[in-house]
Recover the amino acids of this structure.
C-alpha cells in the first residue's frame, strides 16, 4: 500500500470519527420534553440528566411547622413532575437546607447551594430574603420566597407569589367593616413582628385605617417574644374593636389565649404566617375557633375545589398523618411556579438561569386547579395578585381552616400603591 493511499485513508477515518463525536455532542443537549429537536442551552444546576433546585427552609426555628409542610408539598410536586418525564428529559431534584430562621445560617447555605442550583423554589423569611437579595440578583437565580412583604418586590429574580401582607391587611379591614361591625371612629389593634413582615402589614393597616376613618393601636414584638400579656393589656386600654395579627404562630397563640382569659372578645384577623393547624390542639384552640380569621391569597385545603381534593389525597398518601395545613397549598403552588418556568425554558431550548427567568416572566400564568387567583408575573414591582380569601379555624374540617369569605378584592386594595421598600 503506497504512502499517499495510507494518508488518505487515515484522513478519511479521522473525519468520520470527528463527525461522530460532534453528532454525539449535539445529541447530548437535545430536549426530550417541551423542547423538541435541537440543542438546549444549560447553566448552573443543569446536567445531562438532572436539574437541581434548592429549598432554603426553616425546619427548626419559629416557622418550623410552615417549613416542614412547604418542603413536603414541594417534594410531592417535583416527584409527580419526574414521574411524568421531568423537564427536557431530566429529573428535577429538590435539595433541602435548614437555616432555622437564622440569617447567618441562610447565608452559608446559599453559598453552598447557589452555584449548584438552577432555581430556588423556597426561601423562608423576609429578613433572610432581603439579606440574600443582592446575591440572588447577581447570580440571576429565580427565587420564590415563602414571605410576602411588599419590600421584596422590585427584583426580576425574586418572585413574590399571590398577595403581599399589606394587601391582605387592607382586605382584612374591609372584611371587619363589612362583616364584623367595625365602623368609622373605632380603634383597631395591630400586633406585628419587627422587620419587613410586620412593617409591610402595618403599611396596609395604616392605609386602610385612614381610608375608613379608623384609629390604630400598634404593638411590636420580637421573634423571640412568647408572652403577649402586656400587648393584650395595651389593646384593652385602647378599647380596640378588632385586632390585626402579623406575627408567628406561637405569638398568635399567646395573644388569642391571653385575650380570651382576660375577657377581651374581639375579632382578630391574622396574616397567612400567623396561624398553624397545630394551634387548634393547644389550650388556645377554642378561642381560635371563636374569633380568629386568616387573610391569604390561597383557599384552605378544605375548600370545595377538585384540585385541592386531589392534592389533599396525594399529600396524605405520601405523608400519612401529617397536617394538611395552609403550608401544603403554598408549597405545592410555589413549586409549580418553578416547574412551569422550567418547562417553558425547555420549550425555548434555554435552561440557563437567564433563560429560566425570562421564561417565567413571559406573562403566562398556569391554572393549577387549586382555586388560586390569577397571577401576573410580567411586572415585578407590583403584587402578583390583589384578591384575598378570609378563612376561619375549625378543628373538624380538613386542614383545620374553612372558607369564611371567598376570594375578593376590596376597592381599597384595587387603588393601593405600596410605599417604596
Amino acid at each position: 500500500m503506497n504512502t499517499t493511499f495510507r494518508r488518505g485513508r487515515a484522513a478519511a477515518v479521522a473525519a468520520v470519527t470527528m463527525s461522530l463525536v460532534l453528532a454525539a455532542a449535539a445529541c447530548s443537549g437535545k430536549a426530550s420534553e417541551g423542547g423538541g429537536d435541537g440543542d438546549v442551552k444549560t447553566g448552573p444546576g443543569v446536567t445531562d440528566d438532572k436539574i437541581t433546585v434548592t429549598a432554603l427552609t426553616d425546619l427548626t426555628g419559629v416557622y418550623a411547622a410552615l417549613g416542614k409542610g412547604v418542603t413536603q408539598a414541594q417534594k410531592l410536586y417535583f416527584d409527580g413532575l419526574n414521574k411524568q418525564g421531568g423537564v427536557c428529559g431530566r429529573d428535577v431534584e429538590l435539595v433541602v437546607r435548614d437555616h432555622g430562621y437564622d440569617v447567618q445560617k441562610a447565608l452559608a447555605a446559599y453559598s453552598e447551594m447557589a452555584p449548584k442550583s438552577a432555581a430556588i423554589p423556597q426561601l423562608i423569611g423576609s429578613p433572610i430574603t432581603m439579606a440574600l437579595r443582592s446575591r440572588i440578583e447577581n447570580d440571576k437565580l429565580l427565587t420564590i420566597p415563602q414571605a410576602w412583604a411588599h419590600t421584596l418586590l422590585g427584583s426580576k429574580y425574586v418572585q413574590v407569589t399571590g398577595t403581599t401582607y399589606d394587601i391582605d391587611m387592607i382586605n382584612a379591614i374591609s372584611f371587619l367593616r363589612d362583616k364584623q361591625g367595625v365602623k368609622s371612629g373605632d380603634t383597631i389593634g395591630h400586633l406585628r413582628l419587627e422587620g419587613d413582615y410586620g412593617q409591610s402589614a402595618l403599611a396596609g393597616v395604616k392605609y386602610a385605617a385612614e381610608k375608613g376613618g379608623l384609629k390604630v393601636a400598634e404593638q411590636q414584638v420580637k421573634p423571640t417574644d412568647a408572652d403577649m400579656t402586656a400587648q393584650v393589656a395595651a389593646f384593652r386600654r385602647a378599647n380596640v374593636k378588632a385586632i390585626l395579627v402579623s406575627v408567628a404562630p406561637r405569638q398568635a397563640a399567646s395573644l388569642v389565649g391571653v385575650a380570651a382569659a382576660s375577657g377581651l372578645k374581639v375579632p382578630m384577623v391574622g396574616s397567612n404566617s400567623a396561624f398553624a393547624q397545630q394551634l387548634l390542639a393547644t389550650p388556645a384552640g377554642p378561642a381560635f375557633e371563636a374569633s380568629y380569621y386568616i387573610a391569604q391569597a390561597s383557599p384552605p385545603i378544605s375548600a370545595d375545589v377538585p384540585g385541592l381534593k386531589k392534592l389533599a389525597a396525594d399529600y396524605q398518601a405520601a405523608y400519612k398523618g401529617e397536617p394538611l395545613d395552609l403550608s401544603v397549598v403554598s408549597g405545592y403552588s410555589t413549586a409549580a411556579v418553578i416547574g412551569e418556568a422550567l418547562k417553558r425554558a425547555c420549550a425555548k431550548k434555554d435552561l440557563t438561569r437567564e433563560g429560566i427567568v425570562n421564561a417565567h416572566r413571559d406573562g403566562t400564568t398556569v391554572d393549577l386547579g387549586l382555586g388560586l387567583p390569577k397571577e401576573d408575573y410580567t411586572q415585578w414591582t407590583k403584587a402578583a395578585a390583589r384578591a384575598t380569601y378570609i378563612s376561619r379555624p375549625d378543628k373538624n374540617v380538613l386542614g383545620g381552616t374553612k372558607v369564611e369569605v371567598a376570594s375578593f378584592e376590596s376597592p381599597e386594595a384595587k387603588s393601593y400603591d405600596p410605599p417604596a421598600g
